[in-house]
Amino acid sequence: MLTRNCLLLFLWILVNEGSVSSLHPPSPPLGRGRTGREHARSSVGPMRNGAAGFQRVKRGWVWNQFFVLEEYMGSDPQYVGKLHTDLDQGDSAVKYTLSGEGAGSIFTIDQTTGDIHALRSLDREEKPYYTLRAQAVDINTNRPLEPESEFVIKVQDINDNEPKFLEGPYTASVPEMSPVGTYVTQVTATDADDPTYGNSARVVYSILHGQPYFSVDPKTGVIKTALPNMDREVKEQYQVLIQAKDMGGQLGGLAGTTTVNISLSDVNDNPPRFSKIGVYVIPESSAVGSAVGKIKAHDLDIGKNAEVEYTIVPGDGGAMFDITTNEHNQEGIIVLKRPLDYESKKAYTFKVDASNVHLDPRFQSFGAFKDTATVKINVLDVDEPPVFNKPSYVMDVYEDTPAGTIIGAVTAQDLDASSSPVRYSIDWKSDMDSYFDIDPVEGTISTNELLDRESISQHNISVVATKLSNPVLTSRVAVTVHVLDINEFPPELASPYETFVCEHSKVGQVIQTFSAQDQDLPSAGQQFSFRSPKDDFKNKNFTIRDFGNNTAGIVTKRAGFRRRLQEIYFLPVVIDDNGYPPKSSTGTLTIRVCGCESDGSLLTCSAEAIFLPVGLSTGALIAILLCIVILLVIVVLYVGLRRQKKKETLMSSKEDVRDNVIHYDDEGGGEEDTHAFDMGTLRNPKVVKENLYRRDVKPEMKRGPRPPVSQDSADIRDFINQRLTEHDTDNSAPPYDSLATYAYEGDGSVAESLSSIESVAIDLEEDYDYLSDWGPRFKTLAGIFGEQSETQSDSTTMENTH
């Protein structure tokens, strides 16, 4: 410091002695770099002779950068530099001013001399430089003598900051058994000093603690393994101390440290190992699926590398047991696979293998990653309850079976070495009504009373077997008793079979298969047998063959069947069932003889077909039948037309054989008029119906019945004989047979007679007005007969008068 101050003073003296009038600071101390300078071209200052204006003066060199040491610890303000102008003649007429960053607070200037001082200690890491402006003004007028000049005061760095690990402490991991040079992690230290100035910020890394296991690159800070085959099972955690030193690691440099915690991660480099042989004792009553014991193979690895899989080596007792792995603690759990029986086998010995699930191929050369242990299991005898020979029993009994009938039996035995006797009983809760009983020694179950299937079709009872030597030990079994329906209906044919046999059938040919049915329930399980009746041994035509599957067949016993000789055969068949009691019935099978093709297909079964000409096709037969039908229709139409024509001729003839028949154009009652009169009476006088009334209209006025004319009346015989003679002698009569009406009318008509044959016997004063009540069709008839009645009455009166 003293040397620097002396140098500055020397330079100041040299400047003051010179004739340079420009504003310039003194030279910086020796060893400080200069960033640049500028040459003053001219300087303008006030006229000394009092003349107005400025005159241009020549300026000297002006330094625009100063340096100040950081962390200055002196008691006096630190001298920074000096400002001077050529216009300053030393008469204190020039005043220097300072402005900018830190002016007045950090930096100060002597207004008269231009000396700049730092008022306090500066830290480059806080602010590396300050920019200020200086100006020389007239002390009296404050007018600037020169333009304002800007310069920089730079804080010069010193090595006052040690390297720091901002991210420390570090944690890293590397697989165990890694080779030398395996990357672990990288550490980084930062130095706040100026990296562009000296070696203050150049850091070098080194290991203070952690050798010989790890190494660090001095420039990059990369940590690597330095020792091969580091085993996690030997040592898992390592703590490494890393140092970072500035000044390139030279003496006097500042240093910082950090800790790196390195752990070795596990790899599967250790096989599982059993520590002891497993010996277990279990009772023979152990349930299937229960745990028998535990066995464990220890693996020094951790995580998935320590996962162990257990297997039973096939051998002596391996089939009786199984083994699983507990995922939480990697134990092998031995499980019973089949029931144990002390009386059959008292001990089991087998081997168990333990192997890793996830293998690392890098370490397979070390050997097999598995181990084998021997397991011995001793079976402990236990006093067990009796055991039934079946898990459940099903029995069948017919309804109405007599009480005391044995329907079945249950069997249980003591499998222990003592082989104690067993006693049987029925749980009273399952048979509240005591339908069944059981023999306590034999175990046979019998009915206690009559069973009714319609009331209870199924009984579920529970049979208890008790060990005689230890009554506490019991076992139960379920017994289901089905009440069967007795056989009430005989079997019968499944359908009314009608079959045929071909005329050219061979002996022993099955021409029909048939089956049977039974209305008894259940239909499933029914068995039927078929046979011919005992008295049917004379049958030379057909026989019955039972197929044994509820079906049978009709078999021919001869050949040469002919429809001309016999068209239909009836074959009886006896059907038996397997019910209780057994039932049978006899059915009849109808067999028709038919004509068939050579392959057995049916042609016709009609007996008339044999008389038809051979070779006529079906189409020809249909054509012949159609022609016959057409001819019959023509004949019927012809006969009908002839009868209609003949009827019209007789009815329209003006010379009708009836007397006093009046023709009129009104339409009659049609069918009802026809039914009003019985025309058969005219043909057969013996058939006389009494009081045949009209069926279309109910007359309001009923007239008494006319007395029938005697059949033996001489008048009728004479009348008929006369008319018969007239017809026989009539030359105009047709030369063929014809129907002659002799005009005899019966008395059964409701409207009574319309002719005048019986007019003599009728009261002349008969009233025909009731015909008007029958409708408009009979009004005209009533008027005509009413007039005739009046005329006849008048004539009779006149005759009587005469």
Automatic annotation (TrEMBL):
It is a single-pass type I membrane protein. Residues 1-22 form the signal peptide. CDD domains: Cadherin_repeat (cd11304). SMART domains: CA. SUPFAM superfamilies: Cadherin-like. The chain crosses the membrane at residues 610-641. GO terms for cellular component: adherens junction; catenin complex. It comes from the Eukaryota. Residues 85-165, 166-274, 282-388, 389-493, 493-611 form the Cadherin domain. Keywords: Calcium, Cell adhesion, Cell junction, Cell membrane, Glycoprotein, Membrane, Metal-binding, Repeat, Signal, Transmembrane, Transmembrane helix. Residues 22-48, 694-715 are annotated as: Disordered. It is found in: Cell junction, Adherens junction; Cell membrane. GO terms for biological process: adherens junction organization; calcium-dependent cell-cell adhesion via plasma membrane cell adhesion molecules; cell migration; cell morphogenesis; cell-cell adhesion mediated by cadherin; cell-cell junction assembly; homophilic cell adhesion via plasma membrane adhesion molecules; morphogenesis of an epithelium. GO terms for molecular function: beta-catenin binding; cadherin binding; calcium ion binding. Gene3D superfamilies: Cadherins (2.60.40.60), TCF3-CBD (Catenin binding domain) (4.10.900.10). Residues 694-703 have a biased composition (Basic and acidic residues). Its main location: other. Cadherins are calcium-dependent cell adhesion proteins. This is Cadherin-12. It comes from Salarias fasciatus (Jewelled blenny).
